[in-house]
Amino acid sequence: MTLKIEPVGKVVGGHQEIGEIYWGGIDSIIRLDPGYPVEVIQGLDEFSHLVVTWHFSQASPSDVVLGTREPRDDLRWSSAGTGTFTHRDHRRPNQLAVSFPRLLKVDGLDLHVTDLDAIDGTPVYDLGPYFTITGPQGDVREPHWPAEMLRDYWALWTV
Question: Which UniProt keywords apply (predicted)?
């Protein structure tokens, strides 16, 4: 089955380039389609965070890697040779991503956010509020390499 979806909006401002190292502390706007009535976001301003599904729109289908590779192609983690769905980057079949930015304010159909790790012009395919109750339950387990690899990911936020 094929799913055809259209963007509900796009990212405006914020990060300008692919491959930026630090993603924290940068504000941007998720500008929803102007054809939507403002009621589509009624009540959203009561939430601190969003769940945003977006597309790596500047990636090429030739970037997709089906198989194993080192995280970020960095040999420091060569023992972590991991499969396509163990990564959270553009090298996946549908080149979709999910982010959890902080919602700063709502202005009409503009959602002002910070810590959205997408670049200016990125199409947004879906969004909603983050519900703590539907987040991970129980202990969260992961190998050592994500924390090492991403220790500076939100660096501007933590400084």
Answer: Methyltransferase, S-adenosyl-L-methionine, Transferase
Q: Domain spans of the chain?
A: 9-158
In sign, the C-alpha dihedral spanning 141, 146, 147, 151 is: negative
Fold of 9-158: Elongation Factor Tu (Ef-tu); domain 3 (2.40.30)
Q: Say which residues have a Cβ less than 8 Å from residue 13's Cβ, sequence separation at least 6.
A: 27, 28, 29, 120
- Stated pTM of the model: 0.83
pLDDT tens per residue, the chain (159 residues)? 898 999 999 999 988 877 656 567 789 999 999 999 999 999 999 999 999 999 988 888 888 878 887 766 666 666 666 777 777 778 788 889 999 999 999 999 999 999 998 999 999 999 999 999 988 889 989 887 777 777 777 665 443
Task: Please identify which residue in the block is written with the tokens 């991403």.
Answer: 150
What's the Cα-to-Cα distance from 6 to each of 9, 21, 55, 124, 143, rounded to whole Å? Answer: 9, 29, 11, 9, 35
